[in-house]
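Exercise 7.
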Amino acid sequence: MKKFSILAILLLFFTTGCIFFEKEKNAENIDAKKDNRTAYVVINGKTLYTDDFFKFAGVVLKEMNESDFKNQEVKNYLVKNFIEHNLLLQEAQRRNIKVDEKKISAVTESFLSEAGTQDLKVYSGSYDTDAKALSEILREKFMVETLISDMINSNIDIKEDEIKKEYIDNYSQKEPSKKAHIFQIFTTDKQVAEKAMAELTRGLAFNEVAVRYSEGPEKEDGGDLGFIIDTDYPEIFGEAFKLKPGKISDIVKSEYGYHIFLVKEYSRSKKIDYDDVKTQIHFSLYNKEQDKKIEELINELYKNADIKYLTDINLNDASLSVKSGSNR
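Solution. The predicted structure, written as tokens, is:
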């Protein structure tokens, strides 16, 4: 699964690690509004349909492979996010949260423009979503965002002492990374590697030989990989870090093919300074606190919710349901 609808993204971002309470109840004899759609679940008296679920998970479903459609864990995960989104949406409606209709109209128009069609698919799961359906998706998104902002974000206060403690615990003791400016000749053919090595032995410039024989994308730059950290590359690059500056390696075989390395120079990054990572730490701590508070909110909503399933979701119905019109 490569992409998520924006509403799914919102829930995935905000509800990492939330507990899925076992308050759901099966109900076969609940009176639901007669409709040509299939009623799926009643949440606090509001009936939601299978179409609603498939629209919510539209992009995810389109990107899934056949095995995912049969995976119960995948289905449970999508259902959980669908239920949580609607619990948050109902809470926003209960609190009478309003959104800027002019903003919704402006964003809708931008998505329906020719330049916005790709982003439209990310939001709605379809290129052909009409203005009314898209406005509804955006309205729900903005309502949930406003709920999160009002109830959670405005109450998060990360203190300077917390940031400094995180820095001391996880950054101040880190050893600076050793970097090397490395050139590489890479080929999958042993004979080609031997020809390249023979020319290097005769004194030809490494960059010229790399352009002639290397198969890697860096060949156009004469094999220049720039400054790299060995741990960011496959294990074979550790051989390059054993070389002294200006030295060329022997032919080194790996699972990928044959490598010849040249190390121009080494450099060691300076020790991580507090001011350089202060903003990054604040962002990380903020997100953790946000996740915690949203988890608490959703758990509370589950605790007080009346959730009754009327039927089961079959993910194999997605191709049909996602194409149906919006009737929320």
